[in-house]
Amino acid sequence: MAKQTEGRRTSAVYARYIAHSEQSSYIEIPFEMPELVEEVHVRYTVESHGGEDAKAVIDLGVRDGARVRGWSGGARREFRIGPDKATPGYLPGPLEPGEWAVLHNAYKVPEEGCTVTVEVTFSQRAPRWLKGDLHTHSVHSDGAYTLEENAAIMESLGCDFIAMTDHNTSSQNLAYPRQTSVLMIPGTEFTTNFGHANFIGATDPMHDFRVSDMSGVREKFRIARERGARTVLNHPHCDYCPWEWDFAVDHDWVEVWNGPWTERNGRALAWWQEQLASGRRLVAVGGSDVHRPDPYVKHAMPCVWVRAEEKTVREVLSGIDRGHVVITYAPDGPFVRMQCGDYGVGDAVPYGNPGREVLMQFEDLLAGDLVRVYSERGVELEAAAPLDGEWELTADGEERLFLRTEVWRYFEQAGDRRLAAMTNPIYFDSREEEE
Question: Which residues form the Polymerase/histidinol phosphatase N-terminal domain (predicted)?
Fold first, then answer.
């Protein structure tokens, strides 16, 4: 059971002989961009004809159906383009299907000519689990890490994304490092005297953070959402900065797990369970809230796993919106899948679906880890893992609103049992919802 499913890759190879008479001309090698491509990778080689003294110089670039998307001259032998990231000199953005072309400038061609061989590789979109941190800070507010340091640490952990949520500022979203494999998700922590909230996915979600009453808070949430942000209530039951505004504020997600597991997180988890039991379908997320080097508060602890169609800001946020979220205490923590036929974590099983048995598949368990399955009625099932590694359980969702799973582990350093993993629910539609 692999958490990460690599997208399907296909390649096409083109060879083009360039005659000496074509020197100083621009040459196109057309190729067809398929549908649902997440990244295109182009590389080329040049074979000069005419002996050791003959050397061709052929420049490189690319166009899509509307414009030139990049040019590197003779500086590069390959490039990549994706929706959010691209090799320097190339523009990220949509990879629209249709005719594209590799561009060459035949700068210098030997008398006997040369042959250019181009390989174009397409990485197709494919659902997989991506992992990262949705709550971090940097030198752009009260953190000690630079953005480059944050990205490097996440990269070293094998993580896929990080949300930059500095307090009441958006400058970090204009300065993120581009030469990293980690997807940088823009964000801001809306920080007030009576509670904090993350606005995630918008570069500049608000022009002024100052509020004095609930109407002002609602207005900030409204503006942030209009600008494309998801709104998250942060550590709502914290001992020091809980959410003391009205909980009826229009929010998308709730942060039930902030930093190391403590009682404040337990209170947030219990509140979320109450919301689910009332029939509300509210997505739970987590975040490290890391500010500086600390023996306990560390990047991607907890780690948020999102099942997404591709590694882009849009698709990661969309995956969270759909509730396709599992949270583990660390990037290498135990992982849980839940499946009811074709439906998984965050999905709603239609009323007429035959059978409501949910299969739970666990990875990276330790013998003795305690598994609990919850519905609106409370704990439906509790069992201890018999061995290290993988394990499976089933639970019946008949006449239930939802089922969700927790894994509790004894941590010697803490001296007690703490949450090691949790899922968002699988929901079950009623006849009334179907109608």
Answer: 132-194
What are the structure tokens assigned to 280, written together? 């509300």
Two structure tokens written together for 235: 């550590």
Q: What is the pLDDT of residues 278-335, one digit of tens each?
A: 999 999 999 999 999 999 999 999 999 999 999 999 999 999 999 999 999 999 999 9
> pTM for this structure?
0.91
128-434 CATH pick, 2.60.120.260, 3.20.20.140, 2.40.30.110, 3.10.20.740: 3.20.20.140
Class at the top of the CATH hierarchy for domain 9-124? mainly beta
Give yes or no for a contact between 150 and 30, defined as CB atoms under 8 angstroms apart: no
CA nearest to 348, candidates 317, 322, 376:
322
Which runs of E-coded beta strand occur in 137-216? 161-164, 183-192, 195-200
* pLDDT digit string, tens, across residues 114-164: 999 999 999 999 999 999 999 999 999 999 999 999 999 999 999 999 999
Closest by CA to 187, choosing from 158, 216, 217, 228, is 228
